Amino acid sequence: MAIRLTQTALPQLPPQVARPGYDRAALRPGILHVGVGNFHRAHMAWYLDRLFAQGRDHDWALVGAGVRPGDAAMRDRLARQDWLTTLVELDPSGLSAQVLGSMIDFVEVDPAATIAAMADPAIRIVSLTITEGGYYVDAKTDGFDAAHPDMAHDAALPDAPRSVFGMILAALRARRDAGQAPFTVLSCDNLPENGHVCARTIVGLARQSDPALADWIAATIAFPNSMVDCITPATSDRERALVRDQFGIEDDAPVVCEPFRQWVLEDNFPQGRPALQDAGAQFVADVGRHELMKLRILNGGHAAIAYASALLGHHFVHDAMADPQIRDWLVALETREIIPTLHPIEGVSYDDYLALIVDRFSNPRIGDTIPRLCLDGSNRQPKFILPTLRDRLAAGGSVVGLALELALWCRYCEGTTEDGTPIAPNDDAHAVLQRHALAARDRPAAFLDQPAIFGDLPQDENFVQAFTQALTAVKRDGVRATLVAYLG
């Protein structure tokens, strides 16, 4: 019989399952985290659990928070198990499990409750994992999207916000007015300069209703940049069964992840921070080059294999990586066109990092899926592919491979695989993408007529020519033959 995960059940767990070796009752809150999904629990919660196990910084425990209906469901699941999470690392050499105890509470999913929790002086860091598309960025200008309905609402009703940024503003205002020190705001999302993007959104929103507050935030609040990395698949019945059958734990919200993590942070925490460097994180003066390495090689690599693999009918990422054309296409694109856009980092070999990425993508235990990699292309392509493309064009380099990646995305947006299997919509802009993709059957450049995504790129004749040739080849010769031609 599996044991239901709770605090009192910890001593009864199988001996091979690691569990908190510290007194959770003695933990005190220090961080409020918005977006308690799988990635957060496999990453930040894991680092803090590791630090607490050293007897360190027990006043930096996590309090969860959320703003979406799904967050309330997660809160309910975690509440039943005293905020504990079973984490399984999917090492090809053998699975291992541990119970994380670094979260001690989860506020009600309600704006007033969240604002009150943020306003508590004990909270010195408010951190976010809200997806890269959750920062209200205007795709045309790459600035703050003040016209978004959420932002317009929170600007008009700052005391009754519905976005996390409106809640942060309300809490910061309360702490300022009470003469209390403000918290640091830490983004943990996959965004270039995520701290700067977060600051721009919060200051931009404040400026709509309270310019004095906006000026105070710009001058006072720290928004450190950070780079996060750990492949963490979604939890399904498969993962719950794995935890139950192999480790004897009944956990409503377990997490599985790869046996690799990286966390590089700008050391800018005026109100203090936990000693995460002792748990394996890295603090640096400038995160930029580490961040760019990860965004372009790993996230760009995911984008590279996603659409080719989907069109060829692959479901799991490790199966796609076992396909010689997919694997070689990834390595060739990275080596020829992506890595050359990166500046050197002292002590870092990009070739070694790429080899690590190939191994991580190939891990059969992760069970990561191609449909997950294909999600939300209208948000991900402008962040993970188009900046690389622009740098290559500016440097006069070849963009044949990057244009092919975009052509594969275009073909995917038509809505069927090469054998005619329908592809379920998985992008908020699906209807627009499909319309342009179908128009591209007669005129390839029609797919590029989406200013919100491509901006002024269609004005570059070299790019348009490369894209047109790539899409023509994909439709005429098929995906596999086109990949082989690029490799040759």
Automatic annotation (TrEMBL):
Q: In this protein, which residues make up the domain named Mannitol dehydrogenase N-terminal?
A: 30-277
| Record has Transport as a keyword | no
* GO MF terms held by the record: oxidoreductase activity, acting on the CH-OH group of donors, NAD or NADP as acceptor
Family matches, as Pfam families: Mannitol_dh, Mannitol_dh_C
Keyword field contains Oxidoreductase: yes
- UniProt KW keywords: Oxidoreductase
| Domain Mannitol dehydrogenase C-terminal residues, every copy | 286-474
Q: What is this protein called?
A: Mannitol dehydrogenase family protein
Query: What is the protein's species of origin?
Result: Paracoccus liaowanqingii
